[in-house]
Write a structure and sequence with these properties.
This protein has 287 residues and is an alpha/beta fold. It has seven helices and 15 strands. Helix 2 packs across helix 3 and helix 4 runs parallel beside helix 7. The protein starts with a strand and ends with a helix. Bound molecules: flavin-adenine dinucleotide (FAD).
Length: 287
Amino acid sequence: MKILVVSEDPEYFRSASALAQKLSDDVEGIHPSESSYVKKLYLPKLDGFWELSLVDVAFKINPNLVIAGGTKRDKTFAFSLAGKMKSSVASDVFDVRLDNDGLIVKRPVYSGVGIATIRLKLPSVITIQKNTLEPKTFNTLIEKVTLTNSNVILKERKAVQQTVSLDKAKIIVSVGRGMGSKENVKYAEELASVLKGAVGGSRPVTAEMGWLPEDRQIGLSGNKVKPQLYLALGISGQPQHIAGIRDSKIIVAVNKDKNAPISENCDYLVVGDAIEFCKIMTKRLSK
Ligand SMILES: Cc1cc2nc3c(=O)[nH]c(=O)nc-3n(C[C@H](O)[C@H](O)[C@H](O)COP(=O)(O)OP(=O)(O)OC[C@H]3O[C@@H](n4cnc5c(N)ncnc54)[C@H](O)[C@@H]3O)c2cc1C
């Protein structure tokens, strides 16, 4: 069985290679820098808009199974390839084994509350979660590949550079719709500044209303964070948000509704107005 491992990210590439090696000896890879985790490595330059042109390269390799990483661009590539291969698909897989006529994969469902065990027919394309497995190394044959740029740019937006990155932040002040307006987000930013923390937000305030840049979204379809302190201001605590903050050490929620769902998922609940809370805390901590 030929397995193709693909990711733009070194950690995902290592994780995918380790899973692939459990299933087959015939493992090839596509990755933008040299690696000895696969027997044959296709080495493209991944700049610009590479996802769709990489689909053509992978399709020609004709794998039975593609194990791709979990970055947004890895996923765009993977599911476009799945369409072209007319293969079965599964995302965010963390366990995979061979079955008589296909694969058995495990992936989270219901925002990580449950685990689904799914049987897939080959050919198949899966995206994975990172793991800590260490793959063996080979005397890898390397082939450089040149991509043709086949993507069409509809709209270009510059990524906003975060001052403190959410994945490394020890303290996160996170805002939800309960902050009331874009102007009020400054109170959370002032509090984050005295706490030397990062500012994040729920999906409505980032992806939908634009109170914060989209890359600050926390949750199932945004960043997964694990700070020492997560301060949830005016966030109701829907499962899709909780999925991204589950690994936080201490969660403090400020909500005017004592029965908001976040009350079930936080360590401390302050029942009150989030803006007043920010003003008072910023004043006290500034002293
Ligand atoms: C496929 C899918 C993926 C999703 N992914 C994500 C994701 O990654 N991240 C995410 O966040 N959501 C995600 N969502 C959306 C999610 O379901 C919720 O809609 C969202 O999290 C709610 O955001 P919120 O808590 O800011 O707003 P709301 O649910 O409107 O909650 C606002 C809260 O603020 C409180 N409040 C109001 N005024 C004040 C005040 N003055 N002071 C204090 N509290 C106040 C209210 O009591 C309420 O609890 C996803 C949904 C789907 C379907």
